[in-house]
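so my prof wants the structure for this chain in the tokens format not the other one, which i didnt know existed until like an hour ago. anyway here's the sequence
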Amino acid sequence: MEWIATIVGPDDGTPSILQFCARAVILFLFGVLCIRIAGRRTFSSLSPLDIIVAIVVGSNISRAMTGKAPFVPSLAGTLLLVILHRFVAMATVRSNPLARFVKGRPAILVRDGMADRAAMLRYNISDEDLLEGLRMEQVRCLEDVELATMERGGKISVVPRDKR
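here's what i got, hopefully its the right format
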């Protein structure tokens, strides 16, 4: 372990320039490793669990970079968190109750051109937010929607009505 301390410097915020550079390289590679372990989904369509993990990983890497936290223990704790996240993500594939707890449920906001005001209120979706979500899916108005759903990742998905 002494060789690591020599490369990355002390954890009191006083590493040399070269030691900070070594930390940057190590943390960059460590960050890539964390993303590979956690999976692409963690940093793309963010669920609440994904957001927490992303924030904590970023914070831990930052503190390890600046020497505000012990280098090796910070990496160990961060790696454990990412592995735990991966196991929880894998478990949610096999357990619907766990998936509902961790990821939440989708909510129908519009059915057959009619907005569900109770669902919109429950998820803090204003009329303007809903219309923005529809426009993002190339739909002009509520009447053109067969189904609009607030997905577990926070995105509004839209199934347009058939134009027969």
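also thought this was worth mentioning. The mean pLDDT is 85.
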